[in-house]
Amino acid sequence: MTIKDVAAYCDVAVSTVSRVLNNHPDVSEDTCAKVLAAIAKLNYIPNNSARDLVTPQGDSIGVVVRGAENPFFTPVIRAIEARCELAGYTMVLHQIPAGADEVAAGAELVRSKRLRGLIFLGGRFDYSQHEANALGIPFVCCTNTNQFGDLEKTAYSSVSIDDFAEGFKATNLLVQRGHRRIAILLDSVTDHSVSELRYAGYCQALADAGIPLDTSLVFQTVAFSMPAAFERVSAYLAQSQDVTGIFAVADTMAIAAIKALHNAGLHVPQDVSVVAIDGIEMSLYTIPTLTTLSQPQETMGEEAVSILLDVLSGTSPNRHVRLETTLREGETLGVCKN
Amino acid sequence: MTIKDVAAYCDVAVSTVSRVLNNHPDVSEDTCAKVLAAIAKLNYIPNNSARDLVTPQGDSIGVVVRGAENPFFTPVIRAIEARCELAGYTMVLHQIPAGADEVAAGAELVRSKRLRGLIFLGGRFDYSQHEANALGIPFVCCTNTNQFGDLEKTAYSSVSIDDFAEGFKATNLLVQRGHRRIAILLDSVTDHSVSELRYAGYCQALADAGIPLDTSLVFQTVAFSMPAAFERVSAYLAQSQDVTGIFAVADTMAIAAIKALHNAGLHVPQDVSVVAIDGIEMSLYTIPTLTTLSQPQETMGEEAVSILLDVLSGTSPNRHVRLETTLREGETLGVCKN
DNA sequence: ACTCTTACTGGAAACGTTTCCACTCACCGG
DNA sequence: CCGGTGAGTGGAAACGTTTCCAGTAAGAGT
């Protein structure tokens, strides 16, 4: 069933059918109606590959998600897909393990699919010119931003919160309530991920409060995983219970930490306060409700697509967008009693 | 940068380059090496549209997810994508609102992308021959199965648990511990979704135990949403607190219910027991840990793709696969004290 | 009645592949 | 020395579109 069959069926040229298909202006009403009827009757479906072939550009946008098991990404991805759809693009989702190299995965995706742009979710915040060249198409780094480098010169775009500032803010929530034994629960401080920036904010907040950094309170885990976070906190509590506040860089980890505290017989927030960053829906329903700096997940996804479309259309150069969190006050933050 | 450029660059015919690209046997080692070098040097990327055009079949499998905000689907989708990738297919994900019509969405997807098969996640369990025809390509209904119709004659495949039996089992967990005021928290009992079957199992379990069905204990909500479940349970508790057991057809709803109970001053499981079906990771970390019948999420996704590939290759006709749940014993199930 | 527009339509090239067919050349056996 | 074989290669058709260009017919203006 091709355009030719349709053309033959209603005795017009293929070009006429094509015009009808693409809403071209100069085609008479009768012809248009006739063709439309034939299309419906024959249940004709245009072949997108052929269309893609002749039109210069593809119509797909790749999304590489590192650590998609984190429910934080779900609304972001949904927003991206919706926005892509609206703009006539197809979202091609590719999920990679938390430890994997998203640039390599992205390059592979570019190579095998017909992508016009790429969005990285949960990757690093830092990409070299060389990596950008290797990718060869515009890309947006979503959910984290390089705070250290010179953003003006980057060969890519980004949309994120100010991770340093938010890490600082979260830690400060604890500091202001008198906590001094404040642990941080994070991924890795050296992989150029969001953890590194939030950790820097944590360090700054401690420093400003005159609290020396105690590395035994830096709970590094892997992959934002709940089991890992649970184990790490449990292991610490088995040794010592002097911690009074925990700043988790992700809601999921915070929830796992609360469970670990609970299992160790500690109460939140009476014995230990917990704050996090993310604002996933689930953390509204934990007991106690999580206090967290909520990220605008939908907006992030939408903004990522918007930026990409702008760059693709040449409307604007690469840019870096910072969004605000909102403090979602839960029940896990209390005054330090010690 | 096309295959012609590569051919010109190393002074061979395009057909030769094509052969190298597709690992055809009869091409000499020297030529092969020469072409490969040129490809690398020129950074040539084959145009998939052109390839798709000439090869008879597309390489995409569509996945329509209804209510993707449910974290239950996350591992399923990941498994589907991994399996597609392995088989050389591209997964095209399309998320639709909980109330939407997945067949219409699927048809639209088939129309616009170049799909070979389709997987429905979280849709209905029942599809008519007419709908199958309209879709025009093989599809798998994943996560639920028609228990009422004659499966042998269906024009589609499915992979799921035995929703009726599991609904029965879950309810029985409560019955066996002496509960008689057992509520069910579900979506809609009449939309041919998973809720309907689990509800039937619930009714059966009650009937077997000689407990009359009390429709005021049937908590219908919409869209498996946590806020809706929370509101529904809260509203009931504001009227009456005589319920001693709740069977939630999804973990998410159970978690919301537990929160509602907690806010109403009731303890789980001392005052009210809660059981659910799903087994999402998060429910291992709730306080108390959720007792749930855990579905093999990865296996479901993998199986869905396997079936689809078999049907596509003609290896086997449409088939219906039933998987087993495993009881994940948490802390939300207790003996009825009344 | 003749040209000039205007409105529409048809024909054909082009997009970048794959694959079939035909061709060349070296080599082998007779 | 010659026909046959087979490996390697080139040429060209085909896939289903879009779009440019040319063409036709009708209607308007002279």
Break the fold down into its secondary structure elements and pairings.
The structure is a homodimer.
Chain A: H1 3-9, H2 14-21, H3 29-42, H4 48-54, E1 60-66, H5 73-86, E2 90-96, H6 102-112, E3 115-121, H7 129-135, E4 139-142, E5 157-161, H8 163-176, E6 182-186, H9 194-208, E7 218-220, H10 226-239, E8 245-248, H11 251-263, E9 273-278, E10 291-294, H12 297-313, E11 320-323, E12 326-328
Parallel strand pairs in A: 1-2, 1-3, 3-4, 4-5, 5-11, 6-7, 6-8, 8-9, 9-10
Antiparallel strand pairs in A: 10-12
Chain A binds a DNA duplex (30 and 30 nucleotides) through helix 2 and helix 4.
Could you characterize the architecture of this molecule?
2 copies of one chain form a homodimer. Chain A is α/β, with parallel strands linked by helices and 338 residues long. The first copy, chain A, has 3 domains: 1-44, 434 Repressor (Amino-terminal Domain); 49-161 and 297-323, Rossmann fold, CATH 3.40.50; 163-294, Response regulator (Rossmann fold), CATH 3.40.50. Helix content of chain A is 42%, strand content 17%. Chain A has 12 helices and 12 strands. Chain A has helices at residues 3-9, 14-21, 29-42, 48-54, 73-86, 102-112, 129-135, 163-176, 194-208, 226-239, 251-263, 297-313, and strands spanning 60-66, 90-96, 115-121, 139-142, 157-161, 182-186, 218-220, 245-248, 273-278, 291-294, 320-323, 326-328. In chain A, the strands form 2 sheets. Chain A has a 6-stranded parallel beta sheet with strand order 2-1-3-4-5-11, sandwiched between helices. In chain A, strands 7-6-8-9-10-12 form a 6-stranded mixed beta sheet, sandwiched between helices. In chain A, strand 6 (182-186), helix 9 and strand 7 (218-220) form a beta-alpha-beta unit. Chain A is elongated, with a radius of gyration of 25 Å. Chain A starts with a helix and ends in a 10-residue tail after the last strand. The relative contact order of chain A is 0.12. The mean pLDDT of chain A is 91. The interface between A and B is large, with 45 and 45 residues. The structure holds a DNA duplex (30 and 30 nucleotides).
